[in-house]
Amino acid sequence: MQTTIVVLTGDDDEHADHITPLLSRRGAEVVRVDPASFPREVRVSSGFYNQAVSRWGTLDLASLTAVWYRRPGRPRVHDEIVDDPARLYVETECRHLAQDLWDALDCRFVPARRPLIDRAQRKLLQMPLAARLGFETPATLVTTDPDEFLAFSNRFDGQIITKPYAFAPAMLGGAGAVRYTERTAPIDLGYADALRFCPVIAQELIAKRVEVRVTVVGGRVFAAEIHSQNSNRSRTDWRSYDLRRTPHLSHRLPADVERRCLALVSELGLNYGAIDLIVTPEDRYVFLEINPAGQYLWIEQLTGLPISEALCDLLLEDGRA
Questions:
Q1: pLDDT of residue 240
Q2: What is the 3 state secondary structure string of the chain?
Q3: Do residue 97 and residue 146 come from a single domain?
């Protein structure tokens, strides 16, 4: 039986570029699909008469053995539809159809089916679940209330950080912009009233010895320590990469922390997840968040951890998940 794996992602995805030939060398047919091509460039059908029909262009969806739900785009409406209400209607219809087509498939999904991925990304779910599983977690406030925010800051003598509720890019002055985690300075408190417009996550500032990126793939755990404190640029948020000054090394997790990482991924209904931890100067492990579609390739390239091969194993496994 032919193994056919679909990678749901956009054109600019180096992880998909890397994994596709690895899967092909292991005998799988790999098809790359971006829902952003629908309905402009591809036609889809799903029907129940005589026999079930489910097609994305020429691709028979019933033949798939696995779907890697990477970073799919949203359907794009034909330019011929110029009326704004009509475009909104059509976009909504196309988005729901595209989601339903993939959600209905009886095959393995990595990291999970879309509804489970959406659920796992919710910050208000992650933190209490991690705490229930035994992780140490930072004091956290999500708020649009300036008074609550100022009281939280006072509780920790101003030693707090803030970060966006959803790590989403924005357009500012015609250019893309992303807000990273930032320490709150005294001058920032004077603008607290602006919180009524948009939520923010505030957390107590946790001292770091190193940070650890844990990538869980099925039942395997790969941990890498990021020496973010070596550089002022990455000190508060390692995503402000300074790779030349921040060594990345393989990290051995304590057995209890590894078990919690596996349990967290399982509890969220995932078979893949990227977990961010802080290791304090006292060697305490503090949970920050889990990303069901978190990047890993730079970790593999810097440490040699065989994450891609483990991901291929997972996508090629028999069974439904």
A1: 75
A2: CCCEEEEEECCCCHHHHHHHHHHHHCCCEEEEECHHHCECCCCEEEEEECEEEEEECCEEHHHCCEEEEEECCCCECCCCCCCHHHHHHHHHHHHHHHHHHHHCCCCEEECCCHHHHHHHCCHHHHHHHHHHCCCECCCEEEECCHHHHHHHHHHCCCCEEEECCCCCCEEECCEEECCCCEECCHHHHHHHHHHHHCCEEEEECCCCCEEEEEEEECCEEEEEEECHHHCCCCCCCCCCCCCCCCCEEECCCCHHHHHHHHHHHHHCCCCEEEEEEEECCCCCEEEEEEECCCCCHHHHHHHCCCHHHHHHHHHHCCCCC
A3: no
